[in-house]
Amino acid sequence: MCYHVSIDGCNILLDCGWNDKFDVDMLKPLAAIAPKVDAVLISHPDTAHLGALPYAFGKLGMNCKVYATLPVHKMGQMYMYDHFLTRQDQGDFQEVFSLDDVDTAFAAFVPVKYMQLSMLRGKGDGISVMAYAAGHTLGGAVWKIGKDAEDVVYAVDYNVRKERHLNGTSFDAIHRPALLITDASSVDREVPNKTTRDAKLIDSILSSLRMNGNVLIPIDPAGRVLELILLLEEKWAQRQLGSYQIVLLTNVAYNTLDFAKSHLEWMGDHVTNAFERRRENPFNTKFLTLCHSMEELQALPPGPKVVLASFGSLEAGPSRHLFAEWAEDKSNLVILTGQPEHGSLTEQVVQLSAKATAKKKIKLTLSRRIPLEGSELAEHESSRKSSTSTELEKKESETVIAEEEMTDIKPVEAEAEPMDVLFGVTTVGSTQEADLRRRDTLTEGFTPISTPHGPMFPDEVWEPTMTDYGQEIDIETFHQISQMSSGIPIPEPMKETTVVDDLDVANIEEDEEEEPQEVPTKLVTETREINIRATIITVDFEGKADGKSVRTLITQAAPRRVVLVHGDAKETKTLKDALTAGLPGVQIDAPDAGKTIECTSASATYKIRVSDALFQKANMRDMAGYKVGWVNGVVGKALEEGGAPMLLPVSALNSNADGMALAPSNATMTKVSAQPGSVFLGDLRLSDFRQALAQEGIIAEFADGVLVCANGRVTVRKDGDEKLVVEGALSQDYFEVRQILYSQYSIL
Fold first, then answer.
1. How high is the pLDDT of residue 405?
2. How far is CA 723 from the centre of its chain?
3. What's the rounded mean pLDDT across residues 683-705?
4. Is 386 helix (H, G, I), strand (E, B) or coil?
C-alpha cells in the first residue's frame, strides 16, 4: 500500500508498504516521488503498510517526517529488524536495506496519540493530521487530513468488532469528509461468529497435539499475533493444557511480548480497566515460551508443540523451514490465519490444499548460513590475515608519508616576543641537569622546537619531590588524586596474604579472554520437493470489518467523494455498486495502480483572525476534535499588509483604537443582529438515542423507521439528514424524552 496525495503543493504519502518478496522493481513509482515527499502517514506496523520505508530513506532519498502512533513506530521498527536479520541470515540483503537504513527511517518518526491534532510545517503549513483508532492492530490508525474547512479521510484495514486486546473502530468523529480513501479488500468478507471461530481453532489444534503432531501458525510479529497469544493462553488455562508447549519463534520474540506488556493504554477499555483495578496484565503469560532461533526451538524438551513463527507469508524465516520439516507428516497441522499475500508461498499452499488430488507436491527453495569448517575455514583465515596485513601496511605507509611531510616544514624562528611562537626542547632523562635547564626555561623562555610536534617540556616524565612551599610530595598520593579527578577508580591496597581459589582463577581467566570473533559462515541453498500430507486449515484472525460493516460505516460517514483502493476487480466493483446505491449523487472512483485522479474541491474559504476580546466572550465547546463557539462581531482591517482581517466586537465599530481603522468612514451602518437561539452541534443516530433512553429507564422500539417511546406516547423520527422531529402529547414523558435528546448534543 502506498498512495500519494497532493494538497496545495504539499506531497503526503499514505502508507509506504511493500510485500515479503521485497522486489525492488515494485518501487519504481515510489522512486520518482520519494525525494519530493513532505510527510508520510503510517496506519499499521506491518510490511504492507511500512515495509518500504527503510529502502525509501536509505536508497531513494526520502527525507521527511513520518507520522504514526507510538505502537506503530516501535513495533514497526522491531518488525523491520526481524525482516533484515532473517533475510541476512538467508542471503545478502544489504543491497535492499541495512540496519542503518531502518534506524534512519524510524528516526524520522513523529509519534502521535489518538485524537491529537498535529500541524504540518513547511509546504504543509495550514494542514493538520489526526489519528483515530482503527481496531485492527495495536496502534493502528484511521487518518484525517484537514485543510481549511475540508477533510480527507484515509481508512484502510479497520475493524468494528471488540476483541481480546482492542476496541473496534467507529466513524462517529468522521462526518461528511470532502474525500474518503478506503479499501475494497474486505467487501466480500463474511466474518464468522467469534465463539465458533475460536472453537474451530482450538479443537483443530488439540486434535493434532493428541496425535503427537506439531502445529505451525505462521504469523507476523507486529500484527495479529497478540490476539492469538491471548486466545491460546486463555484456552490453555481453562482446559489445563500445560503439558503442550506454546512457542513464539521470531528474532524479536522477547521485544514483541515486552512491548505489549508496557503499552496497555493503547488497548481496549476492558484491558486497561483490569490493570487499573486488579493490576492484571494479560501478557504476563504462563504457557508461552519465547525462542529467537531454530536452535533454541530444537533445544526445547521433546513433545508436540504449537509454534507461532514468522513470517505469515512463508517467504522467509523459521516458518518456512518448519513448514518444510513438518508438512510431510500427516499428524501435523498448519493454520493460516489471514488472507494470503499475492504470489507468496502461503497462497500456493492454500490453492494446493483446496485441490482434491491425493498428491500435493510443491518445490521449496531453502537458504541458510552454516559455519565454515576444515579447509574452507583455513582458507578464510588465511585470506583474512592477508587482508589485515595489507591494511596495516597501507596505514603504516600513509603514516610515514605524513611524518615526512611534517618534517619538511621549516622551524619557526624566535621573534622578540617568545610567547608568540611555538617552542620546545628535545627529550632527556630526569637528571639534575635537566631540572636546572627546566628552571631556566621556565624563567627565561622556552627553547624553539625543531619540528612541529616536539614536546612542550624537555622531559617526558617530571616528578617533583618538593612543593613551592618546601613541603615534601608523596608521589603515590599525587597519583591517586590525579586518578580521582579523572574519574578512574582507585584499586584497594593488596593485603599481605591473598587467597585465590580455583573459581576465582577461572573467572579471572575468563575476564582476560578476548571477545569472541564472529564465526565465519557460508550460504547454503537447496531445493526440496515437499509432498504435503499435513492438514492445512484457514481460520480468519485478520481482524478486519466484514462487507456489511464496511458499507454501513461509509454510508454513515456520508463522504462527498469516495476513492476505492487495494482490492481486486471483483471486490472493487461490488463495493462501488453498493455505494452508488447507498450514496446517491456521490462520485465513486476506483483508479488503477499508478493512475492519478483530480479531486479538486470547489468550496470557497476565507481566513480571519479573531481578536482576544471577542474570543474571550465566545462559549467554546468540544465537537469532533474541534473547538466550536458562537461569536458576534465586525470585520476590521488586517494588522499587517497582506494578513488576514481581524474580527472585532461590535462595540469596536468605527473605533480606531491602537491606530487601527476598523471600517471606512463612509460605510453604511447596519444593525447587527443579536445572537440567534440555541444551536445544536453533533450527529445523532436513533439507535444510539435508543440506548440513551434505555439507560434512563425509558423503553423505546423501532416501528417503520420511527422510534416509539414511553409506550407510544412520544415518537422521534428523522426528517432528512439534519432534522429531528419529536411528537407527542405535552406530558412528563414528552419533556423527559426531549431533555434526553437535548443532552446528546453540544448546545450553543
1. 61
2. 42
3. 82
4. helix
Quick check: is 601 in a domain? no
Same structural domain for residues 90 and 237?
no
User: How far is CA 68 from its chain centroid?
Assistant: 6
* Domain shared by 220 and 352, yes or no: yes
Which of 684, 690, 691, 713 minimizes the C-alpha distance to 702? 690
Q: How many residues does the chain have?
A: 748
DSSP type of residue 183: E
Q: Looking at this protein, which amino acid is placed at residue 500?
A: V
Closest CA to 173 of 127, 134, 136, 118: 134
Average pLDDT over every residue of 350-379: 76
Cα–Cα separations (whole angstroms), residue 364 to 123, 324, 343, 529, 536: 49, 8, 14, 6, 17
Listed in sequence order, the residues at least 6 apart from 677 whose beta carbon sits closer than 8 Å to its beta carbon are: none
Please check whether residues 617 and 687 belong to one and the same domain.
no
* Contact residues for 129 (Cβ-Cβ < 8 A; gap 6+): 39, 41, 67, 112, 117, 118, 120, 143, 144, 145, 146
pLDDT at 52: 94
- Across 165-226, the runs of DSSP E, i.e. the strands, are 179-183, 215-219
Same structural domain, 623 and 688: no
CATH code of the domain covering residue 688:
3.30.310
Q: What's the rounded Cα separation, in Å, for the pair 703 and 609? A: 49
What pLDDT is attached to residue 289? 95
Mean pLDDT of all residues in 127-143: 94
- Find the CATH number of the domain harbouring 568: 3.60.15.10
Tell me which residue range forms the domain holding 201: 194-372+525-538
For residue range 202-212, list pLDDT tens digits in order: 999 999 999 99
Final residue in a domain of this structure, among 387, 408, 429:
408
For the sheet containing 305-310, what is the strand order? 288-291, 245-249, 305-310, 215-219, 333-336, 535-538
Helix, strand or coil for residue 219? strand
In a domain, 416, yes or no: no
Structural domain includes residue 509? no
Whether a cis peptide bond, with omega within 30° of 0, leads into 446 is no
Residue 248 belongs to what H/E stretch? Answer: strand 245-249
Q: How confident is the model at residue 644 (pLDDT cuts 50, 70, 90)?
A: confident
Q: What residues are paired with 564 via a beta bridge?
A: 182
- Tell me, yes or no, whether 73 and 132 share the same domain: yes
Asked if the model's pLDDT at residue 736 lies above 70, the reply is: yes
pLDDT tens per residue, range 611-632: 887 877 777 777 666 677 777 7
Q: Count each helix (H run) and each strand (E run) in the chain, helices first.
A: 21, 31
- The string of DSSP letters for 572-626 reads HHHHHHHHHHHSTT-EEE-PPTT--------------EEPHHHHHHS--EEETTE
Residues 294 and 342 in one domain: yes
pTM equals: 0.69
CA torsion 186-190-193-194 (nearest 10°) is -20
Among 95-109, 289-303, 389-403, 460-474, the minimum mean pLDDT is found in 460-474
Count the domains in the chain: 5
Burial class (CB in 10 A: 0-12, 13-18, 19+), 1: buried
How confident is the model over 474-516, as pLDDT tens digits? 666 656 665 555 555 555 544 444 444 444 444 544 444 444 5
> Mean pLDDT over residues 281-295, rounded?
94
Q: Are residues 122 and 266 in the same domain?
A: no
- Which of 479, 507, 538 finishes a domain? 538
73 occurs within a structural domain: yes
Query: Is residue 140 located within the same domain as residue 41?
Result: yes
Angle between helices 70-89 and 99-107 (to 10 degrees): 170
Q: Grid coordinates standing for 396? A: 603504516
* pLDDT value of residue 16: 95
Residue-level pLDDT at 398: 73
